[in-house]
Amino acid sequence: MNKPIMAKATAVWLVDNTTLSFRQIAEFCGLHELEVQGIADGDVATGVKGFDPITNNQLEQAEIDKGEADPAYTLKLKFNPAALGEEKRRGPRYTPLSKRQDRPNAILWLVKFHPELTDGQIAKLVGTTKPTIQTIRERTHWNIANMQPIDPVALGLCKQSELDAAVQKAAKKKEAEGALMSDDERRKLVSTEQSLEMETEPKIPTAISGLETFTLGGSDDDEKQDDLPDADSLFNLPDNDDDDDEDEDKGGR
């Protein structure tokens, strides 16, 4: 159910000017019943001026009359055509002042480790603007030399579930486009929860790659090596008998 604007101030006015129950006021204003009781006791919303929902076109007097006559009746917010679509309208994510200086580092981390994310997704995750993301992508940001990539989840700029959802959306888009991805890209497109559940694949070090088919037993290559000519026949070396004959001739002389 839609809630009135300035809900707490509206609750203050209803407590002061009607005999509605705390439950009715709480349901209408979207508050907890104990919070409404605290308003009546003066412990909550101290100094808040009441906001009249009747004069502000949010509630009709007939609804209040029905609620006062029947404690089980639920007040209905007055229909306001101008308020249509207000709940769907969303602005940029609010980032506290203490964390705004960390946003460039978070953007750098997302650009480096998740290049498949669009500028719109990154802007939604950390609450920034597309021009800022573009300067970091192109490394033309004024402070790029002092920036370090830091996980936005660790900085508290977004939740892990939100990051995983954005990564999964990018993975589905890549799959729909049919683009070929490397192993590193596939690992990046897998959410953290899925990657932790995956089994590790054995890999052969690059230093011994190509030796996985090496065996110590005999093979056809050994038989081929037996058919190779020896060194004497290859270089046409003279026989030892000829050297002995030449030595005898020299001795006879």
Automatic annotation (TrEMBL):
Biased-composition ranges, Basic and acidic residues, are 175-190
Tell me the segments the record calls region Disordered.
175-253
Which Pfam families is this protein grouped with? TrcR
InterPro entries named in the record: TrcR
Per the record, where are the segments of Acidic residues compositional bias? 219-230, 239-253
Query: Which protein is depicted?
Result: DUF1013 domain-containing protein
Which species is listed as the source? Rhodovulum iodosum
